[in-house]
Design goal:
Elements lengths: L30 H9 L8 H5 L5 H14 L2 H26 L3 H27 L6 H14 L2 H18 L3 E6 L2 E6 L6 H10 L21 H13 L1 H13 L6 H25 L4 E2 L2 E3 L5 E6 L2 H9 L7 E5 L5 E5 L6 H16 L4 E2 L2 E5 L4 E5 L11 H15 L5 E5 L7 H18 L2 E5 L12 E9 L2 E11 L6 H9 L4 H8 L1
Parallel strand pairs: 4-9, 7-12, 7-13, 10-11, 11-12
Antiparallel strand pairs: 1-2, 3-8, 5-6, 5-9, 13-14
């Protein structure tokens, strides 16, 4: 039983996974929005660290790809989902136990929770045994379950659970009410007067009648009368109730740690497949990226911003896809063009692609060949922080300096609209120095700017320009193509700054 994790190869599970904090780039890339959608309704699993911790090894990524491919098969996905639902029901029982007041009732709920667990585990084992499972992860789980169910520990647990359920199902007792006094006694074959009364009045019923019955709320916790009746039943049947008490003490840790871990970790895959399902139905492509920890030649077709696509599809709107490629010795894509033309969205998409690929997940796109980074750094425009006592430009320079000090040749850097607060000459000077440092590091990146000159600093830079509708300069296509900068980016920035864009002029005329 060597299986450990559905997320990590045997022997590779990190011990500090739950201590992983949110990457600094998460909010800039809108990955926090993606994560919020992924974890909604799954808070009990504490999934966030699983989506924070990226992989840096190709074999580790392939391990997850294998599991995902299996889970994309409905005959594998459905039993896994049923297992997850049953395990959630088991946990709900334990949560309810914490709210109950009477010991005997707590024990009964515990027995029910164990029964749910045993049924869930045995059903999953039976279902996976007959499925076409090819991944090392799920095949390892299948083998583990088969061994676990055949173990003395599980066999004893399941037998004792069934025995107790049968013993309690055979208990019969009578409740006699004498005014305010209630007596509990053994059942001696007394008539069920409630059934006789109902049968007597049934003959007088003529058609449907209005019911005057009052529906009482069904509380999980017993009231004091029910508790006293249960105490009486327990005194009359000390054998089964004593066995139940010993059962609860002996099996308080019945949940197998590996199965409990699988129950949590598989939600990583289920949540993501559930998130992208409506996007796929809308016709948006997802693919398993070809990843490399060495080669930096990249190519992606028909990709898009996952967070934006989720919102647009929910609103019934169209999603515009883009693509790019990098060949040796190209490293940095410099994006220029008019504002609101999709430049920032492309920058976010670039960062999202690499984070999702490094999680071992499907990525937005028809095809993708991506590099596995050691870390993703982002520099997006931020409001001035009065607590730092720094101006906007100084604050930007400090943040960029920290990035350049930490980044390695295996990093990703995404710069978006940096140094917009300064003049063109200053932005050109500072931007050129920063770009040269990035190129010297040798990392991959995207640099969104209004300074067109940065797109032609050397053979390692690639120019991409956001497009407009030729007959209507005010209308954006949100398409970016690989072409030399057209020299109009700064003109657009100035026009928008002083209200001289086509749209603003039309507003004034009207």
């Amino acid at each position: 039983m060597s299986f450990e994790s559905i997320l990590f190869e045997p022997g590779a599970s990190p011990t500090d996974l739950d201590e992983t904090s949110e990457p600094d780039s998460f909010r800039d890339l809108n990955l926090d929005q993606v994560l919020a959608a992924l974890t909604a309704g799954r808070e009990e699993y504490a999934l966030k660290p699983l989506f924070y911790r990226t992989l840096h090894d190709v074999a580790a990524v392939r391990y997850r790809h294998e599991v995902l491919r299996d889970l994309e098969k409905q005959d594998v996905l459905e039993p896994v989902k049923r297992f997850a639902q049953e395990m959630r029901r088991m946990r709900e029982h334990h949560a309810q136990i914490e709210k109950l007041h009477y010991g005997l009732q707590k024990q009964a709920w515990f027995l029910d929770a164990v029964e749910i667990y045993c049924h869930a585990v045995s059903a999953l084992s039976d279902d996976l045994a007959g499925r076409d499972v090819n991944s090392r992860g799920l095949d390892g789980l299948r083998r583990y379950l088969a061994d676990y169910i055949g173990s003395d520990r599980y066999t004893t647990l399941a037998q004792e659970t069934r025995g107790l359920k049968l013993a309690f199902a055979e208990i019969r007792y009578a409740v006699h009410s004498h005014g305010a006094r209630i007596t509990v006694s053994r059942y001696e074959g007394e008539s069920d007067y409630s059934a006789e009364v109902a049968a007597t009045f049934a003959k007088f019923q003529q058609g449907a009648t209005k019911s005057y019955l009052v529906k009482l709320p069904d509380f999980a916790d017993m009231n004091h009368i029910e508790a006293q009746i249960l105490d009486g039943v327990a005194r009359l049947n000390p054998g089964p109730f004593g066995d139940l008490a010993r059962f609860c003490g002996r099996w308080h840790d019945y949940l197998d740690p590996t199965i409990g871990r699988f129950d949590r970790e598989v939600q990583f895959y289920l949540a993501y497949l559930e998130l992208i399902a409506p996007l796929r139905r809308a016709g948006l492509p997802f693919c398993y990226p070809h990843v490399s920890a060495r080669a930096k030649e990249e190519a992606v077709e028909e990709t898009f911003d996952l967070a934006l696509a989720h919102k647009l599809v929910s609103d019934g709107k169209q999603v515009v896809t883009n693509g790019y490629y990098l060949e040796e010795p190209e490293r940095v894509i410099v994006v220029t063009g008019p504002n609101n033309g999709g430049k920032t969205t492309f920058a976010r998409t670039f960062g999202q692609l690499h984070h999702l690929a490094a999680l071992g997940l499907l990525v937005p796109g028809r095809e993708a060949r991506l590099f596995l980074p050691d870390r993703i750094y982002t520099h997006f425009e931020k409001e001035e922080d009065i607590e730092t006592l720094r101006g906007k430009l100084e604050d930007e320079l400090v943040r960029v300096h920290e990035i350049l000090e930490q980044a390695t040749e295996n990093s990703i850097i995404v710069m978006n609209e940096s140094f917009n607060s300064t003049t063109l000459n200053d932005a050109l000077y500072v931007g050129t120095e920063v770009m040269r440092r990035i190129l010297a590091i040798g990392c991959l990146g995207v640099y969104v700017t209004f300074v067109d000159e940065l797109a032609s600093l050397g053979e390692a830079t690639v120019s991409m320009v956001s497009q407009i509708v030729p007959d209507n300069p005010a209308e954006r296509t949100f398409k970016l193509i690989r072409t030399p900068a057209d020299g109009l980016a700064y003109a657009w920035a100035i026009a928008e700054k002083y209200g001289l864009t086509y749209d603003r002029l039309l507003e004034r005329i009207d």
